[in-house]
Amino acid sequence: MLDENGEPTDDPSKAHALLPFGGVKSYGVTILMDVLASVLPFGLATVHRDDEQYHGQRLASQIFYAINIKNFVEIETFKTEIDRMIGTIRDSEKRAGTDRIYLPGEVEWMKREAWRVKGIPLHKDHVGRLEAVAKRLGVGAEW
Asked: What's 49-85 look like in SS3?
């Protein structure tokens, strides 16, 4: 992170700007993602969407890819190499006190599966607000 003077800091209370992950190499990827997710669809870079005209959209850019894997490699070859990559990552040396290495999105996927069975947990404050809205609208709230 950078503080308000542009100096590096690891103190979240002094953070003014978040640097891209991965340092210099990732900086190019960050710019490329902004070109694809902001300039291409909107005609305007994220760094230029800070006035009132774009209020609420500053951090809203997204991009989705659709890739036909068969255009690059056979599907089975692709799947085999992905499985091998996952195995190598999971078998990497773990930090002391860590029992497992999770892949990006894996924890969320596991929560999703658990929530399908047990339901999505809600904080008591949220439940209270939902009950108040339900009461105001005359809708029964079954928790």
From this structure: CCCHHHCCCCCCCCCCCCCCHHHCCCHHHHHHHHHHH
The number of domains in the chain is 2
**Residues shown for the chain:** 143
> What six digits make up the tokens of 81?
């190499």
Q: What is the pLDDT of residue 57?
A: 59
Q: Are both 72 and 61 inside the same structural domain?
A: no
- In this structure, is the dihedral angle defined by the CA atoms of residues 7, 13, 19 and 23, taken in order, positive or negative? positive
Domain ranges, residue 112 = 68-117
Residues 101 and 73 in one domain: yes
pLDDT of 110 above 80 = yes
Residues 26 and 40 in one domain: yes
Q: What pLDDT, on the 0 to 100 scale, is given for residue 88? A: 95
Per-residue confidence (pLDDT) for residue 81, from 0 to 100: 97
Which of 18, 20, 16 lies closest to 3 in space, CA to CA?
16
The answer to whether residue 11 sits within a structural domain is yes
The residues with which 8 forms a beta bridge, in sequence order, are 2
Q: Do 12 and 38 belong together in one domain? A: yes
Q: Confirm if 16 and 3 have CB atoms less than 8 A apart.
A: yes
| 75 pLDDT more than 80 | yes
